[in-house]
């Protein structure tokens, strides 16, 4: 899908003093996208220049719009020497490539220098015009939106949660190239910064293509990481949850009823006219909360590859919705929702980076599952190819999946991946919460007396009693006779039927309908272990041997601190392992809570030898 990018440089403010003789700056701007460059006029002797340039136009393909960042470089003009760099601005064009998004981005952007930090700001106006292209072999993923939020975004509801997506890109590190011998520190930093921006856009485009093939239009819980592997290169990897989202729409209103007012998420701000100062920030109008009677439109399933013209969040299946009070209309809506949701059985890795779920999705929580692996970077046969790193992560994901199946669970929620690198050693970690997940909670509406309500966040399934709470996520998903590990089980304190463990560790947020008593508190555990300075396989073996004991010690400390706080569960658990030359550090952080369904913690017992020295007794 070819497109046209237009950029206008309006003004600058609070620029640094570059000319010591006049205490002013002769500033101008270079605009670069791809291999095309433009320059503005020089505004002499001003720290708040007004350029008001014409439109700089770039004609590019949409995949280039996703991969390449728009680079704004602000410089101080010198007649007899090289121009001094004030700083740069990198602008990601991807937010403008969605059909329902604004076509103009404008405002004050901070000017950043890798040596001196923020050095003023520049007002830029960016406009994108896209042309429709139905080529099914295109390499762009325009229209797929990315959300770092670990829950369904505000004002949307999930038509289908499609599963786990991941991608990995490898590139040479400019810091370790030949040109380093003649490169200044600023040039080296800028080369890395520019490369990071390009790799990030390329990775996002490749994940978007996978989402389009799955029939989705969004990625939720998107997480991107950079691994600096030294001479082996730079690895950029990302994970997320593919989903098909739709926006909530107001129901049809009668002629005697005034329709609810729903404004666009972002309203285009006026462009400053010639000779006028730009506004301090672009005008934005956020959507107002939807009325309680708003019902999302549901239509037939679309199990075909989505193109750029129909892969945006504003595109919702067509069809009318009958009265919510009608049982027949309710069943029709539910059946159409169920037809679009794939089964967990067909997913290779039933992993979800979501950490917050609406009532009805989580049937049972099995506990935290984790896996770690120690590798040597200098043993990679071809460092420029991602196959070896992909194989490493596949091993961990398979181990996580087997741990979840051992707990009687069909999915892993709150899933995350991390690394720790020290010289040629890399520690890969993966963790999540094993759960019995139901991606089709609409079935409960057909089998039980549950009302299908809609709030301004997403579809919520509640019982007829709004204050009712569910203790089922606390019940164990595995057979209590053949437990996979020694554990103390008791009857649920709420329903008195299901079996619950004495403690529960999770990496997710507590479900909204889970009975919790009191308020939560922060719990943290730290472990440090020394290690000898070794090389190669001996170093990897030493680290690999100590990791299980460190993780055991972290969990033991968490258990003791839970008892000291009179709590019985942990949510949002995050364990980080950092490896140095002579030290290995582990930190575990979580939020402790008291679940009403679990038994209260027992008394904390302190045992040890008592000092019989007479001097100590005389002191007390």
From TrEMBL:
Q: Name one GO molecular function term.
A: calcium-dependent phospholipid binding
Report which superkingdom the organism of origin falls in. Eukaryota
For this protein, the record's SUPFAM superfamilies field holds: C2 domain (Calcium/lipid-binding domain, CaLB)
Location of the region described as Disordered in the Swiss-Prot/TrEMBL record: 268-329
Query: Which residue numbers delimit the C2 domain?
Result: 1-109
PROSITE patterns given for it? C2
Q: What is this protein called?
A: C2 domain-containing protein
Q: Which organism is it from?
A: Branchiostoma floridae
């Amino acid at each position: 899908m070819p497109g046209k990018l237009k950029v206008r440089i309006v003004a600058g403010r609070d620029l640094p003093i570059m000319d010591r003789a006049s205490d002013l700056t002769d500033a101008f701007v270079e605009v670069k996208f791809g291999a095309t460059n433009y320059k503005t006029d020089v505004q002499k002797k001003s720290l708040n220049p007004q350029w008001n340039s014409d439109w700089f136009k770039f004609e590019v393909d949409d995949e280039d719009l996703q991969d390449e960042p728009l680079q704004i470089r602000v410089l101080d003009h010198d007649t007899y020497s090289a121009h001094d760099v004030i700083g740069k601005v990198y602008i990601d064009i991807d937010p403008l490539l969605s059909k329902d998004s604004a076509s103009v981005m404008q405002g004050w952007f901070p000017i950043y220098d890798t040596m001196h930090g923020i050095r003023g700001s520049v007002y830029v106006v960016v406009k994108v015009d896209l042309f429709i292209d139905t080529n099914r072999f295109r390499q762009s993923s325009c229209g797929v939106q990315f959300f770092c939020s670990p829950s369904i975004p505000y004002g949307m509801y999930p038509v289908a949660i499609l599963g786990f997506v991941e991608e990995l890109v490898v590139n040479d590190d400019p810091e370790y190239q030949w040109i380093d011998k003649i490169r200044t520190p600023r040039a080296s930093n800028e080369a890395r910064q520019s490369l990071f921006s390009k790799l990030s856009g390329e990775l996002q485009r490749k994940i978007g293509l996978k989402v389009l093939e799955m029939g989705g239009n969004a990625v939720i819980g998107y997480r991107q990481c950079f691994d600096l592997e030294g001479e082996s290169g730079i690895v950029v990897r990302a994970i997320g949850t593919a989903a098909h989202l739709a926006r909530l729409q107001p129901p049809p209103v009668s002629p005697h009823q005034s329709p609810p007012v729903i404004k666009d998420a972002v309203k285009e701000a006026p462009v400053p006219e010639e000779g006028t100062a730009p506004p301090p920030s672009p005008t934005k109008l956020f959507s107002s909360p939807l009325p309680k009677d708003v019902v999302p439109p549901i239509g037939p399933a679309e199990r075909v590859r989505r193109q750029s013209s129909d892969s945006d969040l504003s595109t919702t299946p067509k069809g009318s919705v009958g009265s919510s009070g009608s049982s027949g209309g309710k069943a029709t809506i539910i059946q159409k929702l169920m037809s679009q949701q794939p089964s967990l059985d067909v997913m290779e890795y039933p992993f979800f980076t979501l950490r917050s779920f609406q009532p009805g999705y989580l049937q049972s929580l099995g506990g935290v599952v984790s896996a770690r692996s120690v590798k040597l970077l200098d043993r990679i046969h071809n460092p420029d190819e991602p196959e070896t790193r992909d194989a490493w992560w596949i091993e961990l994901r398979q181990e996580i999946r087997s741990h979840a199946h051992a707990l009687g669970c069909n999915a892993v929620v709150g899933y995350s991946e991390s690394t720790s690198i020290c010289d040629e050693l890399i520690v890969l970690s993966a963790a999540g919460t094993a759960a019995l997940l139901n991606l089709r909670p609409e079935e409960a509406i057909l089998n039980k007396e549950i009302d299908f309500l809609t709030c301004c966040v997403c579809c919520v399934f509640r019982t007829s009693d709004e204050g009712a709470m569910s203790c089922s996520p606390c019940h164990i998903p595995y057979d209590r006779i053949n437990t996979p590990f020694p554990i103390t089980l008791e009857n649920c304190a709420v329903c008195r039927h299901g079996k619950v463990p004495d403690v529960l560790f999770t990496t997710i947020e507590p479900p909204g309908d889970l009975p919790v008593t009191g308020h939560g508190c922060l719990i943290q555990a730290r472990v440090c272990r020394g290690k000898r300075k070794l090389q190669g396989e001996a170093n990897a073996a030493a680290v690999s041997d100590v990791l299980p004991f460190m993780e055991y010690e972290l969990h033991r400390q968490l258990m003791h601190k839970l008892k000291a706080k009179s709590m019985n569960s942990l949510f949002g658990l995050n364990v980080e392992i950092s490896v140095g030359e002579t030290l290995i550090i582990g930190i575990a952080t979580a939020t402790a809570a008291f679940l009403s369904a679990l038994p209260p913690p027992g008394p904390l017992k302190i045992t040890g030898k008592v000092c019989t020295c007479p001097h100590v007794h005389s002191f007390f």
